[in-house]
Amino acid sequence: MQQIPMTVRGAEQLRQELDFLKNVRRPEIIKAIAEAREHGDLKENAEYHAAREQQGFCEGRIQEIEGKLSNGQIIDVTKIPNNGKVIFGATVVLVNTDTEEGVTYRIVGDDEANIKEGLISVNSPIARGLIGKELDDTVSIVTPGGTVEFEIIAVEYK
Questions:
Q1: How many CB atoms are closer than 10 A to CB 129?
Q2: CA angle 61-119-58, nearest 5°?
Q3: What global pTM score does this model have?
Q4: What is the mean pLDDT of each run of 10 residues along the chain (158 residues)?
Q5: N or C: which end of the chain has fewer CB within 10 A?
Q6: φ, ψ at 4 (rounded to 5°)
Q7: Which pLDDT score is estimated for 10?
Q8: For residues 18, 19, 22 and 28, what is the CA-based torsion angle, rounded to 10 degrees?
Q9: Which pLDDT score is estimated for 18?
Q10: The dihedral of CA 113, 116, 118, 120: what is its sign?
């Protein structure tokens, strides 16, 4: 199986979610199933079927997280010497060459991606266009609105 890159923060978030699902959510669902069983006929018991469905989602997510963590390659950029190159985990400050508008992105794993927080997936078109580039490079990124040129004005490993 392919290794899944993740930051230290991303791995910790997955571990926290896994802990919550196993130690809080799973017991809640088991209790809900037991209570619904007490109501009698299971064929027409909506609470029972809803709880079983939730159990399926919960167990599926637990397996998914365990798989990701077992195949995860945790990359701590703070331990890598900063040579100005854009790599996984780097925070990149860009300026749109047309509008002079600045934007900051951190390249993270798929599970951590949150564009509102400036966290972009390593598999996103922007990240793919930035990986391997260096400070002061100009890059063309194909976006849904067309090709946009950015200048890399800072690369931080934090």
A1: 18
A2: 10
A3: 0.81
A4: 87 96 97 88 84 96 95 93 94 93 95 94 93 94 87 95
A5: N
A6: -105, 115
A7: 94
A8: -110
A9: 97
A10: positive
Q: Which token pair is 142? A: 């194909």
> How many whole angstroms separate alpha carbon 89 and alpha carbon 6?
8
Which two three-digit tokens encode residue 127? 């990240």
Q: Which one-letter amino acid corresponds to residue 127?
A: A
DSSP letter for each residue of 31-69 = HHHHHHHTTS-STT-HHHHHHHHHHHHHHHHHHHHHHHH
Tokens describing residue 155: 């690369």
Give the Cα separation of 141 and 105 in Å (integer).
Answer: 14
Residues forming beta bridges with residue 142, ordered by sequence position: 147
Tokens 């079927």 appear where? Answer: 49
